[in-house]
Amino acid sequence: MKAIEIIGKGEEMHGRAYIPSGREEAGTIIKKLKENGFAHFVMLSCVDWIDKNEFELVYHMWSYEHKEHAMISVRLPRDNPSMFSMHELFPQIETYEREIHEMYGIDFEGNSRLTPFLLEGWHDTPPMRKDFDSKKFAEDVFDSIPEIKEEEDEGI
Amino acid sequence: MRYEEWNKISRIASRKSLWMLHFCTGCGAVELPPVMTSRYDMERFGMGPMATPRQADVLLITGYLTVKTLKRVVNVYEQMQSPKYVISFGSCPINGGMYWDSYNTVKRLDRYLPVDVYVGGCMPRPEGVMNAFLELMKLIDEGKARGWEKYQKYYEQYKRNQKMAFGFERGKNEGD
Amino acid sequence: MKEYELFIGPQHPGVTGNMMYHLWVDGDTVTKAECNVGYLHRGFEKLMESRNWMQNVPLVCRICVPEPDVNEMAYAMAVEQLMDWEIPERAKYIRVVILELARIAAYLMSIGSYAGSLGIYTLPQWALGDRDYFLDIFEQLTGARVYHIYIWPGGVRWDMPEKLPGLIEKTLSYTEKRLKLYDDVLFKNRIFFDRAVGIGKIPKGKAIEWGVTGPNLRACGYGYDIRKLEPYAVYDDMDFEVIKYPELGDFDVLSDGCDAYTRMIVRRLEIEQSISIVRQALEKMPEGEHIIKHPNWLKWKVPPGYAFKRVESSKGEYGYFVVSDGSNKPVRIHVRGPSYTHGVNVAETILKGANMADVSQILFSLDVCPPDIER
Ligand code: SF4
Fold it and tell me: What distance in Å separates the CA atoms of residue B151 and residue C189, rounded to the nearest whole number?
């Protein structure tokens, strides 16, 4: 696999390269891959591993040259997670970081646009974290709203 | 002419030319273009799309409403001129549908806006949509489509519910 | 001159659905644009974590409304990869047929709404009316017009009815005839040339870096198509050429690519391409099973691992990232929608300097679909 050759570590996973990386070196790895043909940034996803008490950021990159997919995985602690922003390498990372900041509460240093993206006026736990219970929230908030009480005679 | 009689005439007139507001709030909106265009052609009923709320009579809630959209929908609804009618599409505005446990969609539309006609189904077929339009016309004719009067009468209750859904009452985001 | 702020959407016929663009305009030139989404955010990815693997199938198709089948396909492929399932040949061919039909339907809708944004109101009437015949096919094949829930992990839900290929062929040849008329009304129409050539240009060298995919990328001159790059189902068996700028068939090359004009022409040509793929798939379709034997849905557990699968939709690249920890519910499903880059970053950048009157045609020519931005 080309990506593993370029970086010098990682394993193959169902035909895709999976490269674990530390928080600091991720920037260099992504930059190196970008220079070596991995020009398309597919997406940035985040997984909440609550039992291990960590978040996993997965940077997906695709190379049209080598027809290969690389996943760079960075693990962060669950309390006060923060990561470097990489929006200078690929502009669309800015949007992904905005979403992950909102949905998981991860801070991205260097991204000046971490404003609310999908939600408005949200003050609870970030909703995609595993310890946020969507069902309970929906019951608490929406089921507690009373029905409209109408008077008996429809005298309108 | 007495007020009652005049009302009757105005109802007949308004039922024959209903303008629906062009606001796609959810996935049901994808069945509206077929209804509007050549195959099903709702202009036969004297209905047409309208871009501005101030000249529209019918507000279509096409599917689930997120909290963020509900704010805009209420805004739009209050800009429309009476008499105005609300049709709700699909099972999401009735009881939450398949997003019953979602944190961001309001579950029961009738707690925030008065609904005149519901169309069931996920998503409703164009025939269902047109049937709803005919049903609405019938209700207008009989003088039973009075959601807008209800909204005026129970304005306080509706406002309270809307604020609760927007989270003002949760006490965490004043100044929004 | 004084700068004004303008909001288009969410209640506005000129945006491609329930989303909003916040524009700063100077005279009638846009100086800054900001995309505001979230009006359709239902928290899909959260909901999927609390449902089991089979309950997610009806959820995934609701992510993209005009073309739901690609979602089912990508999800099914990812799960099949984790399960290590080999699906029957016949199912693969049926999948290709339905995916391509859905692509044609989505293109017809996008062409129709694009023409509407130029003020050519004949084409929306025609294209959306013709799209309905495709929905009729879906109804016979799957039972539903819009959300089909037809492609399941392990195959397709039902076998193809015997008489359906006849109906499909009839619809396809009808569409081919109609496409000629579309050409007269839109694609070879002077109004279209004058309005669209050179509008909404994506800088060519930046297209890949910005994450532009699908027809928008091919209009920039890169012949990349996931159906060729990473063939799924039986696309490697099909005979088709990737359409890209400047090989625009019998349409004139009027600009140097990357603009609204080229993007729409590429979409128009890909309808014909899809028609030919459907015909090939119907011809080559073998007999046999359409679905493998399934485990008990309620107790179905998927082995742990990461899976990433991509498909080519009418809007661009769809990717599903599925993580399992070996239980009966997924740990995480992340969807990469094509509009995520097109609608937010690309649109914000290329709207800068555009004329106010062109904003809506640029958005329609990028084919931005908000539900896949926000899920
Ligand atoms: S009822 Fe079904 S089709 Fe309608 S908005 Fe809800 S999920 Fe979508």
Answer: 49
Q: Considering only alpha carbons, which residue of chain A is nearest residue C319? A: A42
Lowest-confidence segment of A65-74, A90-99, C64-73, C289-298 by average pLDDT: C289-298
The phi, psi pair for B31, rounded to 5°, reads: -90, -5
pLDDT at B1: 61
- Euclidean distance between CA atoms A145 and B106, whole angstroms: 10
* CATH label, C3-374, candidates 3.40.50.620, 3.40.50.970, 3.30.750.24, 1.10.645.10: 1.10.645.10
What CATH number is given for B3-166 in this structure?
A: 3.40.50.12280
For chain A, domain boundaries = 2-141
Each domain of chain C, given as residue ranges in start order, spans 3-374
Cβ–ligand 1 distance for B30 under 6 Å, the answer no
CB C158 within 8 A of CB C219: no
What is the rounded CA–CA span in Å between residue B155 and residue B147?
11
ipTM of this complex: 0.85
* Among B115, C45, C114, C368, CA closest to A46: C45
Residues 27-86 of chain A whose Cβ lies under 8 A from any Cβ of chain C: 39-43, 45-49, 58, 60, 64, 67, 69, 71
Confidence of residue B175 (pLDDT cuts 50, 70, 90): very low
DSSP C8-73: E-SS-TTSSSS-EEEEEEETTEEEEEEEE--TT---HHHHHHTS-TTTHHHHHGGGSSS-THHHHH
**Which residues in B lie closer than 8 A to residue A146 (C-beta atoms)?**
111, 157, 161
User: What is the model's pLDDT at position A117?
Assistant: 82
Q: Tens digits of per-residue pLDDT, B117-135? A: 888 888 888 888 888 888 8
C89-118 vs C122-142: helix crossing angle, rounded to 10: 160
Q: How far is CA C42 from CA A63, B99, B115, B151, in A?
A: 32, 7, 22, 27
User: CA separation (Å) from C354 to B66, C33, C78, C199?
Assistant: 31, 10, 40, 8
pLDDT, chain A, mean: 82
What fold does the segment set A2-141 form as a domain? Beta Polymerase; domain 2 (3.30.460)
Candidates C129, C135, C166; CA nearest to C148 is C135
Measured distance CA(C303)–CA(C323) in Å, rounded: 10
C-alpha C62 – ligand 1 centre gap (Å): 8
